[in-house]
TrEMBL record:
Belongs to the peptidase S14 family. Keywords: Cytoplasm, Hydrolase, Protease, Serine protease. Transmembrane segments: none annotated. It comes from Sporosarcina luteola. SUPFAM superfamilies: ClpP/crotonase. GO terms for biological process: protein quality control for misfolded or incompletely synthesized proteins. One of its GO terms (cellular component) is endopeptidase Clp complex. It comes from the Bacteria. It holds the Pfam family CLP_protease. This is ATP-dependent Clp protease proteolytic subunit. One of its GO terms (molecular function) is ATPase binding.
Amino acid sequence: MKIAIKGPIISDGDQRVYDWFGIPATSPDKVSKTIDSAIRNNVNELTVVINSGGGSVFSASEIYTELKKFSGKVKVEIVGVAASAASVIAMAGSTIEMSPTGQLMIHNASTSTWGDYREMDHTSDFLQKVNQSIMNAYTVKTGKRSDELKMLMDAETWMTAQEAKESGFIDSIMFENEVGAVASTERPELINGVLPQEVINKVREQLANDKTTAVVNSATQQNKKDESEVKSKMTIEELKAQNPDLYNQVFNLGKEDGVSAERKRIQEIEDISSPGNEEIINKAKFETGATAADTAMEILKAQKEKGAQMQNAIRKDAANLGNITPTPEATPAAGETVEDFADNLLNSMGMGGK
């Protein structure tokens, strides 16, 4: 798996700014994610391609440590320049190759500070300790003594591929068998591409406040998702034509479920049937496809209507009773009780009991 160490070596927090500008840069998190991916995929060899003028020594130290922790082989290729902090990263390689046109540079750590003599003394002590930390990576690779490395770092030493190989900083020169001689160049002016901190802070503020960018990006992603979903849909006709076996399987499953559901519906309607509602029951079972609940409501509604019709008929018959004129025979005689009248009437009809 390939890991590219390109552009300035920066902190994780600055990576987003460089990406926004489209400027190549390398942070520890960027490298760690690639290493993690290699481990998950059981990759046992990393190829680290370096073309960087350096940057943050602490970020470089973190990257160096992650590469050294990798259990497989780490092959480093210096294809352009490995200067300053980038040269520290290069030392993590199990083997280090360098292009015949490349350069490697080591120097003392530097920083800027402000304050009185105490602050200056403190900063000097801090930088010397950083230098010692850097030397440790060079010592592990070259086997050189710290005093010798100190001289090289004090002098800000630039090395061609041949010089780097002779000093033990690299193992081999790329294409060495194909090239008859290696050119030695004058020290070039290094432009490591590190953005001024003021620019980084300004862009961070702009990114944090730029709500429009976030909304547009979100909408764009949603549109892409919607388009993808539309493309992924397939009609029944397309499924039947492209995969008839799957179509038949889905069809048969749906048919079985449908038959089972219909049987259950009809049984539920049968359970609520009662005499006098045959027409509603048959219509629900074979015509409308109504549920048992809907059918029950229809029956209640019909019974309510029948009840209302019966009450209307009773009221009409009761109203007609007022138009009937009673006959003398149907009227009790003076002084005759109702009970005697009823008995005499029954006797006259041959139905009396006395």
